[in-house]
Amino acid sequence: MNPFNHSKRDNVPADTVQDRRGPSPRSALAGMQPYVPGRSISDIKAEYGLERVVKLASNENPLGPSPLAMQAVRGLLSDMHRYPDDRAGQLRSKLAAKLSLPASGIIVANGADELITLICEAYLEPGDRIVTYAPTFSEYAFGGRLMNADTIAVPLVDSFALRAEDLLSEADARTKLVFVCSPNNPTGTYMPKTELEHLRSRLPDGCLLVLDAAYSHFADAADYTDGFELLRSGARLVVLQTFSKAYGLAGIRAGFAAGPADVIAHLLAVKEPFNVNALAQAAAAAALDDEAHLEATLRTNAEGRIRLRNGLGSLGIRSVPSQSNFVLANFADGAAHVYGELLRRGIIVRSGAGWGLPDCLRISVGTAEEIDLLLASLSDILQVAPVTPCESDARRQADPSKRQV
Ligand SMILES: *Cc1c(COP(=O)(O)O)cnc(C)c1O
C-alpha cells in the first residue's frame, strides 16, 4: 500500500470509505452552489457523435487567441521550470503605461474571477453585505457566500436598465462592496457614465464600488465608461478587467484590477505569491501589443452583433440591445426545447434558467459563418421562414405569448 495515498485505504475506493473522521467544512460551504460553465465542445461531440460543434456559450473570442500571444508562450516553454514573477512586474508596468495609471494601482490575477474572490477575502467579515443586481455574473454572490456575507441582489426591471438608485437604496452601513457588471452579463445592458458617477459619489463611506468591465471593449455607446477615466481623476473604485474575452486568452487565465493604491495593497496582501503563471503573464503582455488582433475582434463583434440581432428579429425572436459580445434572446416557453435542439445540431448556447430567465438563451456573437449556421438551425427548429423586420413586428404583435425581455 502506498503510504502517501490517503484516498485509498486497503484498496477500498475512496467513495466507499466509511471513515469520516476529520474536521467539518466551514458552515459557509453548505450554501455554496457550484459554478455551471458552458458545455464543452468535446463533450457535445462525444454525446451526439458530431464532427463539428460551434460553441456560442461562454463569450470566448471567435477569432482565437492573438498570434503574438501564441508566439510569446512558445518562446517561454523552455523556461517553465522557473517560478513566475510574483507581481507580474512587466505586465503590470505595461498596463500602467497604457492606462496612464500608477503601477501601484494595478494587480494582475489568475483571471477576473480570482480578483472577485480576493476582493471578498480582503474586505468581508461574516454578516457584512454585498449589493449587486440580478441577473448578473454569479461570482459576486459566490465571493460573498465564501466569506459568510449576505448578498443583496436588486432585480433588474424595465428593460434590464442598470439604475444607480436601486443599488443606493440597498447600500447600508453593513454594505462593504457594491458590484456593478457593465456591460452586464447576461443582459448586455450597461450603466451610463453619469449614473456610475452618481452611484459612486453617493455610496456610504465604508463601501467600495467594484466595476466589472470584463466586456468593456465591446461597448460602443457614447455614454459608456470602463471606469479608467474615473480612476485617473482620483475617484475611489475598483475596475476589473480580463484577458479572457476581447483578448482571446480564456484558457490561460489572466485578468487585472485597477484601483486606489491602498485597495490594491489589500488585494496583494491576500493573494498567493505565484497566482499568475509565467505563460499567462507573457501571453497577456503580448496580446496587449497586438492591436491588429483586437481591432479584428471588435470589428467582427460589432458586425456580428447586428447580424445576430437582425437574424433573430427576422425569425420573430426578440433580443435585448447588447453592448457586449453576446445577445440575450427570448424564446418564450420554447427556450428549453430550442436549447436542446441546438445542442443536437452541434450548437452550444447558454440557458438563461440559471439566472432565473427560463425563457431566454444567451448567445455569444460568433463569426458571420457561425451566426448563419445558428440562424439556419433556429429557422429549422422553429419551422419559420425568415421574414422582413416589418413583417416580424406584425407577427410579434399578433402573438401575445412572446414576452419582451
Ligand atoms: C467572463 C467574465 C469575467 C472574466 O473571467 P476570467 O476569470 O478573467 O476568465 C469576469 N466578469 C464577468 C462578468 C465575466 O463574464
Proportion of residues in helical segments: 25-40%
CATH architecture of the largest domain: 3-Layer(aba) Sandwich
Cα-to-Cα separation, first versus last residue: 60 Å
Strand content: 5-15%
Mean pLDDT: 92
Number of strands: 13
Give the CATH superfamily of the largest domain: Type I PLP-dependent aspartate aminotransferase-like (Major domain)
If helices are DSSP runs of H or I spanning 4 or more residues, what is the number of helices?
14
Q: What's the main sheet like?
A: 7 strands, mixed
Q: Quaternary arrangement of the chains shown?
A: single chain
Overall body shape: globular
Number of domains: 2
- Biggest sheet strand line-up: 2-8-7-6-5-3-4
Identify the bound ligands.
Answer: pyridoxal-5'-phosphate
Uncertain residue segments = 1-9, 394-405
Rounded radius of gyration (Å) = 23 Å
What is CATH's topology name of the largest domain?
Answer: Aspartate Aminotransferase, domain 2
Helices and strands, in order, run as HEHHEHEHEHEHEHEEHHHEEHEEEHH
Overview in brief:
This protein has helices at 41-48, 67-76, 89-99, 112-123, 139-146, 164-168, 193-202, 228-232, 261-270, 278-289, 291-314, 335-344, 368-382, 389-398; strands at 54-55, 106-109, 129-134, 150-155, 175-181, 208-212, 238-242, 255-258, 318-319, 326-330, 347-348, 350-351, 360-364.
What attributes characterize this protein structure?
disordered N terminus; 4-stranded antiparallel β-sheet; 14% strand; 405 residues; disordered C terminus; alpha/beta; Aspartate Aminotransferase, domain 1; Aspartate Aminotransferase, domain 2; 7-stranded mixed β-sheet; 14 helices; 2 domains; binds pyridoxal-5'-phosphate
